[in-house]
Amino acid sequence: MLMEGLKYPIKEDKGLINILIGGLLLLLSFLLIPAFIVVGYLIKVGAETSRGNDRLIEFGEWINLLVTGFVGWIITIIYSIIPFLIWSAVAFILIGILGIGGAGDSALVAGVGLLGFVLLWLFGLLVGILIYYTLPAALINYGRESSFKAAFRLSQLKEIWMTREYFTAALIPIVLMVIQYIVITILGFTIIGLILVPFVYFYFHLVIIRIFGIAFRNVVGRPGI
Hints:
The chain is mainly α and about 220 residues long. The chain has one domain (about 1-220). Helices cover about 80% and strands about 0% of the residues. The protein has helices at about 1-5, 15-25, 35-50, 60-100, 105-145, 155-160, 165-185, 190-220. Helix 3 (about 35-50) crosses helix 5 and helix 3 (about 35-50) packs parallel to helix 8. The two termini are about 20 Å apart. InterPro entries: DUF4013 (IPR025098).
């Protein structure tokens, strides 16, 4: 999956043009519409990959990409807001409990405060991992079926999330994001490098969605999927 993903953005003659378009759109992402188009494009790549299409998907049908990206953004918010609300509730309860327990001794208050911070950070990390793990399959399923409801078909998605292929696909991008961070940090030392950052960012995210799409393709057709 990794090598297929890495080669995908540049596998055809128009690969560099695609990266150029994607990077330029990210440069203009503060206008929101270009950002939605990029999201729509990535969803389309994931969906087409899951159908077995190995050809590089080119930018086109801009309105469709815009709409797809906007809906994908809404799906992302919904998948994020429930875990965030749970985290907020836990934070509220934990702060209340630790506040009562730590009243009095200043050293105890400091220790309790540090403990509370660590616990909240760990729980927040778990929430972030949950969103990261579940969201790609939901977006790909939405793109495959062009149906908002498909992103929330939990009985089907659960079977995908629990496969070894999908778990592996979720681990690979963690390494890629570390590499991306190193590359972007190095580029950040020069003005020319800073200009290249959006293009690097687009390349890596195209690789990542391709990897998730391959995992999705490999498990589609199994019982319950």
